[in-house]
Amino acid sequence: MSANNKKLVILGAAESGVGAALLGNQQGWDVFVSDGGTIKPSFRAMLQDNGIAFEEGGHTEGKILTADCVVKSPGIPDKAEIVKKIRNAGIEVCSEIEFGYRYKGDSKIIAITGSNGKSTTTKLTWHILKTAGYDVAMVGNIGRSFALQIFEKPCEWYVIEVSSFQLDDIHQFRPDIAVLLNITPDHLDRYNYVFENYVASKFKITQNQLPSDLLVLNIDDPAINNYLTTHSIHAKTVHITMDENKIHDEGAFVNKDNLHIRYDGDDMQASVHDLTIKGKHNQFNSMAAGISGRAAHIRKEKIRESFESFEGLEHRLEYVATVRGVEFINDSKGTNVNSVWFALESMTKPVILLLGGQDKGNNYHEIEGLVKEKVKAIVCLGVHNEPIHDFFYSFVHTIVDTTSAKDAVHAAYALADKGDVVLLSPACASFDLFKNYEDRGQQFKEAVRSL
C-alpha cells in the first residue's frame, strides 16, 4: 500500500493511536495526531522524537477533514461530532488493528475476542507459542498496540486481544485463527442498547476469513448459537464445549476432569487439575488456547507443559496471600456482573465478597443463585452502594460500606473465619475511588500484605 503524500489523521493519542502514528510515519504517510484531551508525557515525547505533528485539547476540523484515512481510537464513539463529520465527508475510518494489518507482511495472526476471558486466553495462547519457541508478540488490548509492535519489532506471529470497538472499524483485517469465547451484554450504550448489534460486532472477527482459516467458537454460548442459526461462516469452525456429544471429528471438551483437544487426527488430553488457572471458565479459555496452539502446529507435549507453567493475569482471580487461614483473591479486573459470576463459580470455600464502584446499571439477578450458595457477607467498596444494598439485603445478612481498599480489607478480614476466602470481584468500574482497576487491585494487595 503506497502512502506517499497521503494524509493520515489519528484521533486519540494513547497507546493505539501513537502506535498507528509511528507506523504510518514509517510507511510514508503525512501524519497528524489530534487528541481532544491531554496527551500523556511519554506519548507526547514519542511523537516529538519522530517529528510527528500533533494537537491536544481539541480537534482542528480543517486539518482533520483533509485526511485520506482516519485511524480512530476505540474509545471514541461514532456519535462524537468530529466522527460524524469525518464519515459525512466520505473519509475512510479504520481501527488501529486494521491499519496495522495492512503492514504485517507474511506474519500470522491469532485474534481473540469475547465478553469475558479474552485477556487470559490471549496471554495463555501467547505463552503456548512462546514456550514452543515461536517468534511471537502479544498485542492489542493486552501488551502493546499491534501497530507499535510492527513499527518497533515485526514478528512472525501475533496473538491479538481484540474488543468489539476495534472490530467495528475493520475492513480487511483477517486472522488466520480467530477465537470467539462468549458474548454477554456489555458496552450496550455503544450499540443503541440492542444486544444483537453487539453480537454482530463480535462476529466481525470472522467476516474476512476464508475456508483455509480457522474460527474457534464456544458452542455452549446461547448468543453464539443463536447467531449461527441465521448466519453462515466461511472459515473452518471448531467448537469448544463441556458436552462431548457436541464434538464430532475436531474440537475440545471436558469429560470426567480430563480436558480433550481433538485436532488434526490427534486427541490430546490434560487433567483439569494440572491447569494453573482454576474454574470452569478457565477450562474454556484453556480449550480455546489449546486448539489455537494445535492449529499453529505446536506439539501436544508443549501445550501440556504450557498449561502447567502458565502464570495467570494480574488482577484476574489472582491469589494474593493466606493470612491466618483466610485466603485473599484479587479479581479487580472483574468490572461487570458476568465476570463476578465466573469468579464465584470457581470458588470452593465460603466467600466474603468485595463489591462496588462505579455502577454501570448492573443487573445482579445473574449472580443471585451463586451469592445465596457461597457468599457469607458483602463488603461494599464504592461511593454509591445503594444498588448493592437494595438487591442483596434480603438474603445476605451482613453488608458493610467502606470507601478505601484498606478499610475494605480490614472489614472483610474481621468478618472472615479460618477456611474462608476474601474475593475482590467488584462488578463495577473503579473510577469513583481509584485511577483504574489496576490501581484498585494494587491497593487491595498492599492492604492484604500489611495485615
UniProtKB/TrEMBL annotation:
GO biological process: cell division; cell wall organization; peptidoglycan biosynthetic process; regulation of cell shape
Catalytic reaction annotation: UDP-N-acetyl-alpha-D-muramoyl-L-alanine + D-glutamate + ATP = UDP-N-acetyl-alpha-D-muramoyl-L-alanyl-D-glutamate + ADP + phosphate + H(+)
Residue span, Mur ligase C-terminal domain: 315-428
Pfam family, one: Mur_ligase_M
CC annotations in GO: cytoplasm
Binding, ATP: G114, S115, N116, G117, K118, S119, T120
Metabolic or biological pathway, per its Swiss-Prot or TrEMBL entry: Cell wall biogenesis; peptidoglycan biosynthesis
Keyword Cell membrane applies: no
Domain Mur ligase central residues, every copy: 112-290
Annotated localization: Cytoplasm
GO molecular function, one term: UDP-N-acetylmuramoylalanine-D-glutamate ligase activity
Source organism, top-level taxon: Bacteria
Keyword line: ATP-binding, Cell cycle, Cell division, Cell shape, Cell wall biogenesis/degradation, Cytoplasm, Ligase, Nucleotide-binding, Peptidoglycan synthesis
Family matches, as Gene3D superfamilies: Mur ligase, C-terminal domain (3.90.190.20), Mur-like, catalytic domain (3.40.1190.10), NAD(P)-binding Rossmann-like Domain (3.40.50.720)
EC number per UniProt: 6.3.2.9
HAMAP family recorded: MurD (MF_00639)
Listed PANTHER family: UDP-N-ACETYLMURAMOYLALANINE--D-GLUTAMATE LIGASE
Purpose: Cell wall formation. Catalyzes the addition of glutamate to the nucleotide precursor UDP-N-acetylmuramoyl-L-alanine (UMA).
Family per similarity comment: Belongs to the MurCDEF family.
Name of the protein this chain belongs to: UDP-N-acetylmuramoylalanine--D-glutamate ligase
